[in-house]
């Protein structure tokens, strides 16, 4: 039995050698064919060589152009999809605050104490502010008494300054401004002193 296994192993080894030899022969034949083609190519005239090179370059150009067009279309579509869904996160985070407002309205229908109503509204308001802060939205605060800044503020009116030191400075804030990161998303509407 062991002799049969040894014979099978020897037979398989000889078959593998034959397959490898066939691969070597095939590679040698391919190399000879390529050298024949190379030796024939000098017989081509310069015009034929140039024409062949132009055709190859045209083919490369068309392939690159089509790849670029596909890339441009794909990125354009991705950008549109991103713009459509960019606000999805913030909307999902604000929806619970809207639910809280609805619950507060229902609870306040029978309530007569204004302090309790105000306290409930303040809780919901603070929850909304915290949600926006978690998304990077910040309120522009402490503007009164500081110089007017056209980069972050919008002067809606100018009144005589109550004192000499308030000229050109913010006297009152009509509407708060907000930033998101470093970008102003709403300019503060202010009254300046003249």
From TrEMBL:
Compositional bias annotation for Polar residues: 31-42
Pfam families with a match to the protein in the record: GrpE
UniProt keyword Hydrolase present: no
Domain of life: Bacteria
Compartment list: Cytoplasm
Swiss-Prot/TrEMBL keywords: Chaperone, Cytoplasm, Stress response
Biased composition regions of type Basic and acidic residues, renumbered to the chain: 1-23
Main location: cytoplasm
Signal peptide: none
Region annotation Disordered: where it falls in the sequence: 1-51
Annotated HAMAP family: GrpE
Binding partners and assembly: Homodimer.
Family: Belongs to the GrpE family.
Function, in words: Participates actively in the response to hyperosmotic and heat shock by preventing the aggregation of stress-denatured proteins, in association with DnaK and GrpE. It is the nucleotide exchange factor for DnaK and may function as a thermosensor. Unfolded proteins bind initially to DnaJ; upon interaction with the DnaJ-bound protein, DnaK hydrolyzes its bound ATP, resulting in the formation of a stable complex. GrpE releases ADP from DnaK; ATP binding to DnaK triggers the release of the substrate protein, thus completing the reaction cycle.
Name of the molecule in the record: Protein GrpE
Organism: Fontibacter flavus
